[in-house]
Write a structure and sequence with these properties.
Layout lengths: L2 E10 L10 H12 L3 E17 L2 E17 L12 H13 L11 H14 L1
Antiparallel strand pairs: 1-3, 2-3
Length: about 120
């Protein structure tokens, strides 16, 4: 089954009071979430602040934002989705998110089973 992991992104905030993030950080988060073997579960966000005293006034300034993404890693599992279709990825992601057990498909049909029985009885 999949392994639950988490990854932390540390974003430095600019001093322009607009709380903008750099394009490289945004690209890193997007690429991480687009990975086919990453199934998003949850996230949390917090800020890291610094208290600065200027002329007997205490100011709190946000320096960083931490984003913790909890996900299920499908690498090194039988559910590896690197070379599958988009439809299969969607189905597996939905089942992993809900926690449903994914059963392997029944490949042998009734005719295959009868042929196997006939060939086994013929050999005996």
């Amino acid at each position: 089954m999949s392994i639950t992991k988490h990854k932390i992104f540390k974003l430095k905030l600019s001093n322009d009071a607009k709380f903008t993030i750099t394009k490289t950080v945004e690209k890193a988060i997007n690429e991480f979430l687009l990975e086919p073997n990453t199934v998003y579960v949850n996230h949390s966000i917090t800020t890291l602040t610094e208290d600065i005293e200027e002329y007997d006034n205490l100011r709190t300034i946000c320096r960083y934002v931490l984003i913790s993404i909890i996900y299920k890693d499908l690498n090194t599992t039988p559910l590896d989705l690197k070379s599958t279709s988009k439809k299969v990825k969607n189905v597996v992601h939905k089942q992993v998110e809900t926690g449903e057990e994914i059963t392997e498909p029944e490949i042998k049909t009734d005719i295959d089973k009868e042929i196997h029985l006939l060939t086994m009885t013929k050999k005996s």
